[in-house]
Amino acid sequence: MHFNPYGGAAAQVAAALVNLGPAPADELARTLRANGMSVSSISAEDAAAVGEWARRLREVFAEADPDRRVDLVNQLLADSACRPYVSRHDGKPAHLHYASEHADGAQRVRAYTAGGIAHLLCEAPSRMGACAGEDCSTVFVDTSRNGRRRFCSTRCATRVHVAEHRRRAATLSV
Question: How far apart are CA 30 and CA 69, in angstroms?
Fold first, then answer.
């Protein structure tokens, strides 16, 4: 499934931040760049702020109640001071940002991910998920064709299905 740039890439950055958790600035910057966000560097202070932001993003992915999820996203949007800016930087043509290109790293991450989660929530809320694996806390944006993803990876799904199979086999053999 294809999303607009904020609903897709930014929502996937949000999931990556949740899965990363609190991290040193250099690791955070690598994760942001690996997920398509233009970031030259992140300060240690910004990294700490983004770690706390990731905790709040996790609440959105994990929330099952649609009304509560909307409330959480609206609070993220309000707290990120998210508003559109047309930006031109690094030789790129004019494009939309939800924070000024002069904002600090944490502010840019908050605005970008809050905007992405908001777009995803409005366009395809069922595609925001948390792994159904009992011992897994990974979150994801479901980009599968049918939109029925339950697990973070094939490995996690296999682990759960094998455990279920073994439980069924054990009850049948008793």
Answer: 29
pLDDT digits (tens, 9 = 90+) for 79-95: 997 778 888 877 888 88
DSSP assignment, residue 129?
E
Distance set, CA 174 to CA 166, 168, 170, 171 (Å): 12, 10, 6, 5
- Is there a contact between 95 and 86 (Cβ–Cβ < 8 Å)? yes
pTM for the full predicted model: 0.84
Residue with tokens 């054990």, as numbered in its chain: 170
Measured between alpha carbons, how far is 111 from 94 in angstroms, rounded to an integer? 18
What gap in Å lies between CA 16 and CA 18, rounded to an integer? Answer: 5
User: Please, what are the domains in the chain?
Assistant: 6-130 (1.10.3300.10)
Residue 128 forms beta bridges with which residues?
141
